[in-house]
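Colleagues,

For the teaching module next term, I've prepared a clean inverse folding example: a structure given as tokens, and then the sequence designed for it. I'd like students to try predicting residues themselves before seeing the answer, so please don't circulate the second half yet.
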């Protein structure tokens, strides 16, 4: 599975942005079986969990930092996962990565090692 993230850019504080992650080299059925997540990494910091969505019932998970502002969704026929980001803050500035997981256990969504495929990242910069 190859993942291509897009949609990043430079925005002002309070603005909105939608990231997309398109999967290729996999059928829609295969894609639908993966848990999908978004992580981000700011300069000098470790990569951190942002949001994830399950493979079956599309149940979303969010980090406390983005809960209430970001929304993750997936379109299995299009093999695409989205991250709608609202009320952006300067501290949201980072490279955002999408990833696909074969979920195991109840905490799979926030564990980097659970993700087997990663996209190349897209830069999001929020100015104050």
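(Answer key — instructors only)
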């Amino acid at each position: 599975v190859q993942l291509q993230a897009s949609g990043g850019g430079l925005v002002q504080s309070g603005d909105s942005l939608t990231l997309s992650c398109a999967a290729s080299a996999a059928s829609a059925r295969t894609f639908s079986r993966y848990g999908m997540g978004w992580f981000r990494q700011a300069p000098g910091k470790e990569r951190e969990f942002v949001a994830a969505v399950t493979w079956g019932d599309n149940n979303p998970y969010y980090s406390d930092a983005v809960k209430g502002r970001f929304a993750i969704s997936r379109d299995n026929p299009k093999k695409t996962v989205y991250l709608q980001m609202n009320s952006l803050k300067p501290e949201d500035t980072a490279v955002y990565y999408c990833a696909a997981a074969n979920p195991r256990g109840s905490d799979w969504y926030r564990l980097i090692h659970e993700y087997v495929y990663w996209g190349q990242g897209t830069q999001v910069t929020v100015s104050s």
